Amino acid sequence: MNRGQHFREVQLYFEEGDSRWKCIGTGIESAGAWLLERTLKNKFPESLRRDGLAIVLFGVLAMVQGAIAQDEKLAADAPRTTPHGTTFIAPGGWTLAQSANMVVLTPPENDSKLALFDVEAKDADGALAAAWAAFRPGFSRPLTLATPQAPRDGWEERQSYDYETSPNEKLTVFAAAWRAGSAWTVILVEATRATHDKRRTLFGTVFASLRPKGYQRENFSAQTARPLDKERIAAMKAFVADAMRQLEIPGVAFSLIDGGKVVFQGGLGVKALGRPEKVDADTLFMAASNTKAMTTLLIAELVDAKKLRWDEPVIEALPAFRLGDADTTRKVLVKHLVCACTGLPRQDLEWLFEFRRATPASTLALLGSMQPTSGFGEVYQYSNVMAAAAGYLAASVFAPGREQGRAYDEAMRARVFRPLGMGNTTFDFARAQAGNHARPHGFDADARQQTASMDINYAIVPVRPAGGMWTSARDLSKYVQMELAGGLLPGGRRLVSQENLVARRAPQIAAGEDATYGMGLFVDTRWGIPIVSHGGSMPGYRSNMLWLPDHGVGAVILTNSYSGGSLLGPFARKLVEILFDAKSESTARVSVAAAETSAWIAKNRERLEIPAESAEAGRLAPRYSNAALGELAVMRKAGVVRFDFGEWRSTVASRRNDDRTVSFVTIDPVVAGFNFVVGERDGTRALILRDAQHEYAFWEVSGK
What we know:
The chain is α+β, with helices and mostly antiparallel strands. Helix content is 31%, strand content 26%. It has 4 domains: 70 residues, no CATH class; 147 residues, Protein Transport Mog1p, Chain A (3-Layer(aba) Sandwich); 371 residues, Beta-lactamase; 91 residues, Lipocalin. The protein is globular, with a radius of gyration of 27 Å.
């Protein structure tokens, strides 16, 4: 093996009398050098100094042998066990190294680590300290926040830890300590942002699959779902109302379906803070990525009509289709456009920042600049622009020669919304906002829930097959009913064949331990029963729809706040709890999420200077530009600095990072968190913006 190969833990104990020394190295050279240095500096007892060279050689040989014996390159996802018996799934393609009390997982990029450490400790902090001492001696990165998590899956106590990183480090560092009985399992993650983002579902699979020794998973496959009767409906309503209070969600609309029939649909709360109008079953919300399932339903109908094939190369059906990689372009079939499996990463900033003159045609052209960052079919990576291409492909087939946006809108009205009776569902922003609709909301920098501007949400219009639908609980329930009916409409007429309806659920890529992504639909079998779903997220809106095809049960939930995202998972869990008398976890999850949100906002606020520090703001250029994201104008008024991107704008705060760089961070509700790092090259000022896998430099524009 390569002598320089790193692995995370090697321990040699030297004892004489009451003295004890522990050597923990990060690799062969570092551990050997440590031992030699201790010997030469007379740090060991005389008896050990006499044999210093032998100690070094013994240590190196032991480490080499240990690495050879324990390093394992995994061909596929595999169940594994930590030395003390915690079970987990190790991802395929990763390398596993194991020692006496630690397992270290390394993804193929070899620039990131996930370590699992078993220890007996009196509390989470003690367990964490022991884990870092073993994994990274001398670890001293500042802790950003420690927050409790809800118990689950046999873990009686769980704590998460997040560490401070500066934007230019491009790192993600976090940890967790989970207890069952007196034993703790500590999870440590040090990863580049790019690798963690690319392989997020695989990091998540390890976390989700961690279970204490001997734990038996919940499984409802042999159970019959209990009816959603009056009592259980009341329990769901009470749960949603309490969650809204804790999470400060202004308005929620939701529905419940049992036996294929809607047993409840209605709303709680208000459409906009400070106004009396109540949410009801017909209030329109932005349903965001729930739209993807509607787009693939349209394609399924076209496959029924023999106008498309799932396995048809996209370049045959849409000759203008191009990706930044020619080989990937050739491989993409119709079914791959909404599979999150092509290797194209999430790359949203282009369409979120520069959309005023964007069209469906320019959206398709944007794909030509996008490069895959993983192999075809290798990992789940979500691409909104690819999903938009799916809709515009269907539009071109539905109405050849017509402008693709109008053709898509008409195809959806004619083939999806009208037959389903979704009369209020629309892609027309003006129409939606002229009537019964919910406004977006988000927290400001001081944790105050605020009604937000709609400006940035118009970014979805040119990309609308991926997420531009406005709908209501009543309308979206009709779609879920059709899914539960296997493609039949209420009168018995068939909208789509069952074969092509369920083809959209067929696994295209793994999306978690027991979850797969098909064509615009997730299927989750963690509890032994399939749950089909898709969620949605646009600035100021969070939503979800789900159904249990084996039990005839479904639900829809639409919210008008970013904090609504913390309700979606617990809402689904609560439904499972009342259907199968499952263990109560949903209520605790909401309470923990509410506390964690408050803690994060407060901690983030400590690092923000509001208004932005005047000296740093004074060094900003008046204007900047980026070829992909457009122009950025720096506006100043009464000491307040705002960044104006043309399509939308936000007040910014300044932030001094730990590496002594300065950032300007957007802080207005629903657009908060865009981090622009001050930079410079050859005397030209710059502001650097990043997502996890891409970097965009806004350069100073001279003469303006």
